[in-house]
Amino acid sequence: MTITYDDEAPAAVPKPKITYEERRAEPAAPEEKPFLEKYAPFYLGPLGPLRAMQKGSEVLDKIAYKAGGLATDAGTAMGMEPENAAKLGYVANVATQAIPTFGAGPLGAKLAPMFESGARRVMQSALKPTRSAIDSGKAGKAITTMLDEGINATRGGADILQSKVNVLQNEMADIISRHAGAQVDQAPVFIALQDAVKKAMLQGTPQDDITVLRKAAVNFANHPLLQNSATIPIDLAQQLKQGVWRKLGEKSFGKGLVPDAARDAQKAIGTGLREGIEAVAPETAAVNAKTSEFLNAMKQIEKRAGMEGNKNLLGLGTLSPRLENLLIWMLDRNPAAKSILARMMYSGSEAIPTNLARGTAGAIAAQSGQPSDE
């Protein structure tokens, strides 16, 4: 007699054997998406969303095409002439295409500033300006120039700006040569120096600064090349102006090495000469303004490039066990990558919101069960 127990485990059921052909027929496990495809929509700004917008826009085009065809068929079924039925189909097509347009205007007006603001923040992160440059507004002007001109916060970007400055200097030389013989009034120089004196007055002990500024005015009036004349030949005025800014750019004129009043005096003289030249040759004003923009941006980029040369690209990123995190770390520390991202956001600040509205309308229509080839 055999005794059995209810809690005795049943005998194991052998697993069925799977043949080679059956194993091959099994669906393969989903492959991991490549790194760039997986993270581009989140790290590379508009690139990923733009693909989705394009897809939605394509869907909307197909819906509009089919709407036109259905309207044409309906018109024919109602006994309309073929020509009139075709016109009805065309109207239906255009109306469908125009659906997102009414929303794109208000949406674009709201989103475009957001893209532009984001582009400025990313470019500032790439440039990393000093606090004094931010407070003085020089950093903001440099960022605007870089975005408008498509310049990266790299040594190569500074070189491109230098080449643009060289072109402007040649253009300025051509303008001056066309005005050969014209005379520039000295009065703007003394007016600028007088304004500097008024500014120096607004401090507790202005005497030393005022003395420096007034001495600069006397020395300019007695300039050996001016011969006590009230006017200056335009070509000489241009050379004097260039000499002033060249002097200000020398290291010996750097902050702390020369009194502030002496630098203010030179700046006033340079400003007065510029205004005098522009009064005689007005077309030089635009060239001077653009040159000043490029030089300011170039100075800010050169500071960044100097710091970049002393930085360890990997740094703490090597502590990450995942290659993906390391690459993102390196991209975030790379001013060129962030500059390119900022430029894409800035250049697409108008196109992206419009495409977003159009793509969203197409995606919604596709999800609503509208006709689609896919």
Quick tags:
elongated; disordered C terminus; single chain; 374 residues; two-stranded antiparallel sheet; mainly alpha
Give the helix/strand layout.
Elements: H1 20-25, H2 35-43, H3 47-77, H4 82-127, H5 131-136, H6 138-149, H7 155-178, E1 183-185, H8 187-201, H9 207-221, E2 231-233, H10 234-249, H11 260-280, H12 284-308, H13 323-332, H14 335-347, H15 351-367
Antiparallel strand pairs: 1-2
Helix pairs in contact: 3-4, 3-15, 4-6, 4-14, 4-15, 6-12, 7-12, 8-9, 8-11, 9-11, 10-11
* Percentage of residues in helical conformation: over 70%
Unreliable segments of 5+ consecutive residues: 35-53, 96-103, 316-320, 361-374
Alpha carbon gyration radius: 35 Å
Quick one: how many beta strands? 2
- Along the chain, the helix and strand elements come as HHHHHHHEHHEHHHHHH
Which descriptor suits the 3D outline?
elongated
> Which oligomeric state applies?
single chain
**Relative strand content:** under 5%
Q: What's the mean pLDDT score?
A: 74
- How many helices? The count is 15
- For the largest sheet, list the strands in their spatial order: 1-2
Helix vs. strand class: mainly alpha
Q: How can the largest sheet be summarized? A: 2 strands, antiparallel
Distance between the termini: 70 Å
Q: Can you describe this structure?
A:
With 374 residues, this protein is mainly alpha-helical. The chain has a domain at 135-308. It contains 15 helices and two strands. It has helices at 20-25, 35-43, 47-77, 82-127, 131-136, 138-149, 155-178, 187-201, 207-221, 234-249, 260-280, 284-308, 323-332, 335-347, 351-367, and strands at residues 183-185, 231-233. A two-stranded antiparallel sheet has the order 1-2. The chain is elongated, with a radius of gyration of 35 Å. The N and C termini lie far apart (70 Å). The relative contact order is 0.16.
